[in-house]
User: Fold this.
Amino acid sequence: MVRRAYREPREDGPEFSADDWFEWACELEPGSPGEAIAAYRRALGLDPGHADAHVNLGRLLHESGDAASAEPHYVAALAARPSDATAAFNLGVALEDQGKLPEALLAYQKAVRIDPDNADAHFNAAGLAERLGRPAEALRHLRSYRKLTRP
Assistant:
């Protein structure tokens, strides 16, 4: 029934809200990522500051191989919700995939400031700090990563 509501404009009853489109996009993701992308875009058309829609749309675009298109969605999510550790981490990954290493390190650092227990952000920051010639920072992040991942 919801699929029909998505495919055919509703002439009677209330229109979908941004949250409705977001929830529908989440349902579509596993089997229809293209339709999920369209639904996230509908949510953002209704609410350009919908942080969750930006994060999820960015992730789908990134997973499809388009890190450059994902980047502004992670930035928009952080503008709407500055304490979003997932958006900060995903931004770091997108920037790193584009070869923007100093910017990626800044994004990972932000993810760690927001969530000090984010082992993945510490691990990625350690690798980038090492590549950027910052061994003390690399070691600090690596130590944090090991503390968080030891049984």
Summary: The two ends are 46 Å apart (CA to CA). The chain has nine helices and no strands.
